[in-house]
Amino acid sequence: MVQPVGDLKRLEQNARDGPSDTYQLAKWRILNRLHDRNETMYYKVLIDNIEEYAPIVYTLTVGAVCQNYSGLFRRPRGMYFSAEDRGEMMSMVYNWPADQVDMIVVTDGSRILGLGDLGVQGIGIAIGKLDLYVAAAGINPQRVLPVMIDVGTNNEKLLKDPLYLGLQEHRLEGEEYVEIIDEFMEAVFSRWPNVIVQFEDFQSKWAFRLLQRYRKTYRMFNDDVQGTAGVAIAGLLGAVRAQGRPMIDFPKQKIVVAGAGSAGIGVVNAASRTMARMLGNNEVAFESARSQFWIVDAHGLITEERVDIDPDARPFARRKSELTHQGLNEGASLIEVVKKVKPDVILGLSAVGGLFSKEVLEALKDSSSSRPAIFAMSNPTKNAECTPEEAFSIIGEKVVFSSGSPFDDVDLGDGKIGHSNQGNNMYLFPGIGLGTLLSGARIVSDGMLQAAAERLASYMKEEEVLQGIIYPPTSRIRDITKEVAAAVVREAVAEDLAEGYRDMDARELARLSEEETVDYVKNNMWNPVYPTVVYKKD
Ligand SMILES: NC(=O)C1=CN([C@@H]2O[C@H](COP(=O)(O)OP(=O)(O)OC[C@H]3O[C@@H](n4cnc5c(N)ncnc54)[C@H](O)[C@@H]3O)[C@@H](O)[C@H]2O)C=CC1
Ligand SMILES: CC(=O)C(=O)O
Ligand SMILES: [Mg+2]
């Protein structure tokens, strides 16, 4: 047995008190040391055991890693730009030792999973996401770059922590903040014009603004807004099929969304656009699609009567005329909304663990759907809006369940299983990045994101969705990522955005059949094998 894997197995056998946080962190430390010592072997271990180790290098353990990063820190990984580096970022980037960087995941640490502002310690999430880029998408590990932009933190505990690694001052805001992100973008795209930048775990107000600011000029996307939306759409379409209905019935679904942050609004925006397209893509279609969503945030149901309504949520605020008819008011509680609307789906992106309480789940029993669906998407595990045990025990075996962090399936007795799906953007972001890279697309368009979501939705077979399995198991993540990337490449070609990659120019890309595109993607994925040291002539 490979030494570090042996260490992991011994740790499991010797841990007497079960999977406590310390135990999770110890596992992460063993893997992290291997990452530092032998990158090829690390990724071999990760790829071959992805189901077992993704929950360690990614959610859930990565949450605990970020919370404790200053104490866990042994060696630097990635680049740190601080507010004090203003004016120096270009030279810092040109000093980075890699000639080519394909993928950057950048965060400012302001909203790490559902754990809030973790400041510079949020670098752990950028490292974890890039681990999946290598393991799932086969991006060469020498060409990935985790980035932390340290503009301070508003986390009072970290501001007083003597071990804290970052700037111990409150966050920069306003134009000063934007200038720093602008400088970073200019620097990385000057040195590596073909890099793709994934924005990760920025607090909502900046997530939307920065996405609008850069998306038409740079190869970038926001994973929380756009990746999450695609994964949710694929799952929502799966939930329709699980009822034995065709996907085209999606616009009839009534969906209650708890959470109006970057993730929740991203989902409602993209899902309503998908519905509208199915209905004919005109004004009437958009209006009809909009009326299928009820958004509840920390202050209750969002309606047009809300004072100081967030502009991103405004289009989905329930109209006054609809409210009287539905018997609901501005600020109505989640339970009230579920009782009155009898939704087909409740979808949580609130970061509030247990929000789908017994009462909410009881109310969902009156859903107008033959198979109500629950998406408890908040991370990490303790932030899930409910557990699969709660969902299946209260609503029964017909419920379709998915969560952002992994949970075990539920034994329903009599040989029946309640499937616990993982509805996490990890099923899309690696394929979006890889497809953008291999197409050489100038930007990441809405069409490319939609193609990614549709490929994920169609990946699940009829017999699987009818059993309530709406997302693939993590063990198939490399295969699904290849398919998603191929769909992204083809859409980039169709939209005339593709400029080609290495020897494959845009014209040749356009000539590839669907199958050849999948092969092209597969042949460009990195595999963990040691490079040949001695030249051997065949
Ligand atoms: N499964 C996945 O792939 C993903 C999951 N997420 C998770 O989504 C969660 C939210 O992320 P963001 O939108 O960026 O955060 P955010 O902090 O911007 O938004 C949270 C939203 O939840 C609302 N909220 C708070 N308490 C509530 C309550 N009691 N009832 C209803 N709504 C309530 C807030 O008003 C706010 O609108 C996080 O836990 C994150 O881990 C985010 C991206 C991807
Ligand atoms: C999965 C993810 O991106 C998040 O929870 O923020
Ligand atoms: Mg995220």
Give a description of the structure.
The chain is α/β, with parallel strands linked by helices. The protein is about 45% helix and about 10% strand. It contains 24 helices and 14 strands. Strand 9 (about 345-350), helix 17 (about 360-365) and strand 10 (about 375) form a beta-alpha-beta unit. Helix 12 runs parallel beside helix 20 and helix 17 packs across helix 18 (about 390-395). The longest helix is centred in the middle third of the chain and has 20 residues, at about 225-240. The mean pLDDT is about 95. It binds 1,4-dihydronicotinamide adenine dinucleotide, pyruvic acid and magnesium ion. Magnesium ion (MG) binds near residues 200, 201, 223 and 224. The site of magnesium ion has 4 residues, from helix 12.
The fourth-level CATH homologous superfamily of the largest domain is Malic enzyme, N-terminal domain
Number of strands: 14
Ions, cofactors, ligands: which are bound?
1,4-dihydronicotinamide adenine dinucleotide, pyruvic acid, magnesium ion
CATH topology of the largest domain: Rossmann fold
The pLDDT mean sits at: 95
- Cα distance, first to last residue? 32 Å
State the helical fraction.
40-55%
**Percentage of β-strand residues:** 5-15%
Oligomer: single chain
User: What can be said about the biggest beta sheet?
Assistant: 7 strands, mixed
Q: Rg from C-alpha positions?
A: 23 Å
Strand order of the largest sheet: 8-7-6-9-10-11-14
Q: If classified by CATH, what would the architecture of the largest domain be?
A: 3-Layer(aba) Sandwich
Low-confidence stretches: none
Globally, the shape reads globular
**Structural class label:** alpha/beta
Number of domain modules:
3
Number of helices: 24
**CATH class annotation of the largest domain:** Alpha Beta
Keywords: Metal-binding, Mitochondrion, NAD, Oxidoreductase, Transit peptide
Protein name: Malic enzyme
GO biological process, one term: malate metabolic process
Family: Belongs to the malic enzymes family.
